[in-house]
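Morning!

This is the sequence you dropped in the shared folder:
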Amino acid sequence: MAILDVLYNLMSLVFVLGTMISMGMSLTVKQITDPLRNTRFVMMALLANFILIPVAAYALTLVIPLDEALVTGLLLVSLAAGAPALPKLAQISRVDTAAATGLMVLLIVASIIIMPIILPFLLPGVQITFWDIASGLIFLMLIPLALSLFVRARWEEVAASVQPYAAQASNISLLFLLVLMLVMNWSNVVSLFGSGGLIASILLVVIALAVGYLLGGQDASIKWVQSLGAGQRNIAAAVVVATMNFSEDPNVLVMIIVYSLITLILMTPLAGELGRRAKAAA
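The structure's back. Tokens below.
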């Protein structure tokens, strides 16, 4: 299992960096920031990700009997937004990747600000600082994206030659991650059978997708960008909080990991189907 852990961490790093570099070298700053000038787009994203989805998660914990650790894990993922997989899912879905990348940046920054403020009220006893959440997200996502955008703006030919390799690395590492997550966490999934944790995770993913879609406005592409952005939570941020505050109860981390697995299982085929439909329509 130690080898699998190392391989998983390596593939996670390759996926995040590959995705950020691929997006940065194929887009411009203007393309990414233009959607964020749309007040409605920004407000609906914040409403969905930091109010409606956490409320839905809390409601699920009232309806579905869950152990305290599983409740904690579900609430943590509900508040953690801005997943690095969002631009990749948008690319697979053939929706607006620039809007998806802009949304990812918006949600990361908002998560960095909001999570340290809200979590102590939602989960008494939690101690988390701005930098605890910000450090990994800034160094692994925002800085590589910014550097890639700079290269694209300054040396467009270099960016055009590098981008396909970064995209290929992102695609291959995503496939490896899917397989590794299934192999490494199958026992965790099985352990949640009968606990309500599995059904709560599935329901929250479905609710989050629906909330994002319904708040997405009239443009079909943007509706799916908001939907994918809401459904895909920032597992890295949730894991940081869990390991720092709930290390004595492994079920908190188990719930977060299982949620991430359910997300991949449900959303990757959805993105593929959207991409096939878009290609057929074109």
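Headline: The chain has one domain: 2-267.

More detail when I'm at my desk.
O.
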